[in-house]
Amino acid sequence: MVKLKKLSEPTPETLGPLVMSEMTSERPTTSLAAPVVGTDRSSLSADEMRNLRQKVSAQGVDFFYGSNQALHNVSLDMPENLVTALIGPSGCGKSTFLRCLNRMNDMIDDTIVRGDILLDGVDIYKSRTDVVELRKRVGMVFQKSNPFPKSIYDNIAYGPRVAGVKQRGVLDEIVEKCLEQAALWDEVKDRLNDSALQLSGGQQQRLCIARALATFPDVLLMDEPASALDPKSTARIEDLIFELKNSYTIVIVTHNMQQAARVSDQTAFFYEGSLIEVGATTELFTRPTQQQTEEYITGRFG
Amino acid sequence: MVSIAQPQSAEPQSACSVRLVTSGARRKVFEKLMHGLLMFCAVVSVITTVGIVLVLLSQALPFFGEVSLVEFFMGTEWTPLFKPQHFGILPLICGTMMVAAGSAAIAIPFGLGTAIYLSEYAKPVVRDVVKPALEILAGIPSVVFGYVAVVFISPLIKDWFPSAAYFNAANACLVVGIMILPMIVSLSEEVLRSVPRSLREAAYALGATKLDVTCGVVVPAALSGIVASFLLAISRAIGETMAVTLAAGATAHLTLNFFDSIQTMTAYIVEVSSGDIPTGSVEHSTIFAVGLTLFVMTLLINILAQWILSRMREEYE
């Protein structure tokens, strides 16, 4: 436990001499061992959220695929330890925005990002940002579950291993903790060396969540994590998000408005690359201020 | 409608249904014809294969009536064409394996390195130049490689290692290595690139570097396909004839010295079949025994490669 605790609160040594160490100095004592129990956020109003610590903050973000502009001047604050849902019709830029937050779009050729994205107040697009460190702190779960064709154990241990953790005992502990957090431990504890591809779709997606937790991120990005799952597995993922938001700042893209309403504290509505409206989830779904938002959430388009 | 459902038994009730019946029947004949024609195409290659195997067996059997299997597989001297005759195939197998191993030792590291570079690191512009270049390399006839080995590489080896024979195994390994390189590159690159992008993204999202992703995720996911490409290339190296006939010499030596002159199984078959050995003699029937051995060796390697490749298909998705 002591070992794990040490790991879960990265010191500048474990993260390396990087710009990220500025961020970690402010890092709260959230950890796998001792999740912070939050207040009942469903009652937070937009004003109250504004006064919270903003974990991730996008300011005037434009995004281009070649000459095609996918995001127009998006500014969005994502408060710490809350769930922010990004909703909107297909192709509205919500996934693109999500992928800007851990610089996954860097991998696509011929893309340009303008504007600032701050993680704990530090611009992640600054040239001296270490992208590898950024991605350890901002985990991601993809739409389609994508376990490595390796054992269940090796899937979870991959992140810690590339970060340099080699001791078997430490890895064992991380694997167990992360699988427990992802509510998968009881189902797989007797077959950790089996291939991850033998798991069901819902289990695979929870494995991917567990894998993302294994690098001890502060922020968890989820790109329609339940869209390919049956209702039962979806419910489990949503329960999981509920559990995880005590310890992580979560940003989730979803097509399913009920899901956004159920799991999120704050909802942002995207349309044609622009952020149309953002507000507390309860307010946005009951009293939208923009007509497009209202039409979308009542199902008149999209 | 009835006539469509039961074209044979239905009594034509109108002109329309008559036409339906006749065109249906004609189509049926046509379909049958096409079916037969296409099956014939498929059967030709099967028959050819079976025929070759039968010829090999029937021609090799008389040979094994005169030379025991023990002598054939255990003997260490291969001198069927001059006295005293010895029929031990080991020197030929050894020569073949030396060329296969030596060329694999050259082609595998370079080929895999090139494949990884092309699939993971190279920009599209670079790929567009390198891949056609490799295809050209693959298209060069093997006799040209043999010629290059004899007039260019051999003198070079002689310069550096004066003790080397003019025709030697190292020489053959080098050219055959270059010949099978494009095969390894294109097959491996294909399996590397078919590793789903989602796996790469998953690894990058966990803070992996490009090298982590390549060595820890992409190559392991493609490993069975890569190994299969190695095996196919090796089986090509074993079957390679022209270049080794020219480059490696024509003396069957049981040796592991790469600077010695050797003879491979294929080169021996060329030597006998292009010479003036009378057909029907024991000397001549040796080529069928050698050919059968060669056939079994490459067949085993190809089966192994296919088996590995078919296992790969289950690995992701």
Automatic annotation (TrEMBL), chain A:
One Gene Ontology biological process: phosphate ion transmembrane transport
Keyword line: ATP-binding, Nucleotide-binding, Phosphate transport, Transport
InterPro entries to which the protein is assigned, alphabetical: AAA+_ATPase, ABC_transporter-like_ATP-bd, ABC_transporter-like_CS, P-loop_NTPase, PstB-like
Domain named ABC transporter: residues: 56-297
Biased composition, class Polar residues, residue ranges: 22-31
One GO location term (cellular component): membrane
Highest taxon of source: Bacteria
Gene3D superfamilies hit by this protein: P-loop containing nucleotide triphosphate hydrolases
Residue ranges, annotated region (Disordered): 1-31
Gene Ontology MF terms in the entry: ATP binding; ATP hydrolysis activity; phosphate transmembrane transporter activity
PANTHER family for the chain: ABC TRANSPORTER I FAMILY MEMBER 17
Protein name per Swiss-Prot or TrEMBL: Phosphate import ATP-binding protein PstB 3
Native organism: Adhaeretor mobilis
Gene name per UniProt: pstB3
Automatic annotation (TrEMBL), chain B:
Family of this protein: Belongs to the binding-protein-dependent transport system permease family. CysTW subfamily.
Protein's name according to its UniProt entry: Phosphate transport system permease protein
SUPFAM superfamilies: MetI-like (SSF161098)
GO cellular component: plasma membrane
Source organism phylogeny: Bacteria, Pseudomonadati, Planctomycetota, Planctomycetia, Pirellulales
Primary localization: membrane
Cell location: Cell membrane
Membrane topology according to the record: Multi-pass membrane protein
GO biological process, one term: phosphate ion transport
